[in-house]
Structures are given as C-alpha cells and as structure tokens.
Amino acid sequence: MSRATARTVTAPAGEAAAPVPAASAGRPGRDESLERRRRHTIELLAASALALVPWTVLLGLTLPSDYQVHAWRATWVGFDILLLTAFAATAVLGIRRHQCVVIPALATVVLLVCDAWFDVSLALGTPDFWASAGLAVFVELPTAAYVFRRAYRLLRLQWTADGSGSPRLLIPDAESPAAPGPVPKDR
C-alpha cells in the first residue's frame, strides 16, 4: 500500500490506536461485527489458556519421568523438516519482500525455542546435555531472538506511517483498492 493511497489514523496521547480495517471504512455496522469477532477471539484464547492450567497440572502429576520412545527418529526428522520449511519460507518471502514474511518468521522463532527446550530438557542427565545447552544458548535462542526482532521491526514498519513508533495505521482510501505491496526496507 503506498502512502498516496492511504490516510493515517492517530490515537490520542496515552491511548493505543484501534486498528480500523479498510473493509469497515465508511460502512456503518461493520465496526460492531469486527468488535464482536475480536471479543470472541479473545474469549476463546483466554478460555484455552485457563483450560490448559488443570491439564498441565494433571500431566505434571501423572506422566512418568522415564518413557521409551518408538518413533524417535521420525519425530526429530519431522520436527527438523518443519523448522527447515519455516526457515525456507521466511527466506523466500524475505527475498520477495512480501509483507507476509512475518508469519513464517514468527513460526521459525517458535520452532527454534521449542527445539532448544526439547534438546536441553531431553538431554538432562545425559552426556549430551552440555552440547545441547551450548547449542541452545549460542545458536538456537540467539537466532530466534534475531528473527523475532526483525519480524517485530517489519510489523512496526507496516503499522506506522512515519516510522516514529507512535500508534498509527495506514488505511487505504475508500476510492483506491487496497493492493498490498512490498514491505519497505528496514532502516
């Protein structure tokens, strides 16, 4: 979206700007529908978080501390294929300067953190622990932090009109189509 086909919405001092989707610009009644969907999404996420509390406690009390795994190789190769796919998708979308690069970038971050967690926690009490911990501390977690920082900065570029960091959102004018374009280079 170019600056020529967008208008800027600024929040009052001390308040966060509420995103106003292009689809609701100038259409009465759409804001209520979007607000209801937003509220239902938040309720679903909160209920899911609350439901995980007793489940996590139950697992902590009932799972065995030792377990024989039968598909160890398939599990880790499959996980690494997911991680490879996330890295590759991030790289391809990054090369194309596509604004959707943030989605696989954040998936890559989550997979790297999970990889570090499982590598270290599953190596506890084994000779491989220090190698796993070193890989987590010096490779996986710093890479995850770097990719997260870059994704966050891209999001800020997409959501700020002037790069100042103030809560602003570019909204396409009603007359012009909202054609997503390439994300500008990070400063």
- Please mark out the parts with pLDDT under 50 across 5 or more consecutive residues, or reply none: 1-12, 168-180
- Please count the helical segments: 4
Rounded radius of gyration (Å): 22 Å
Shape designation: globular
The largest β sheet comes out as: 2 strands, antiparallel
Distance between the termini: 18 Å
Topology pattern, helix = H, strand = E: EHHHHE
Beta content comes to 5-15%
Would you report the number of β strands?
2
Mean pLDDT: 80
Assembly category: single chain
Give the proportion of residues in helices.
Answer: 55-70%
Q: Structural class of the helix and strand makeup?
A: mainly alpha
Strand order of the largest sheet: 1-2
Can you characterise this structure?
It is built from 4 helices and 2 strands; from the N terminus they run βααααβ. A two-stranded antiparallel ribbon has the order 1-2. The chain has 187 residues and is mainly alpha-helical. The longest helix has 33 residues, at 30-62. The protein is globular, with a radius of gyration of 22 Å. Helix 2 runs antiparallel to helix 3 and helix 3 runs antiparallel to helix 4.
Supply database-style keywords.
187 residues, mainly alpha, two-stranded antiparallel sheet, 4 helices, 2 strands
Itemize the secondary structure elements and their pairings:
Blueprint: E1 6-10, H1 30-62, H2 72-95, H3 102-123, H4 129-159, E2 168-172
Antiparallel strand pairs: 1-2
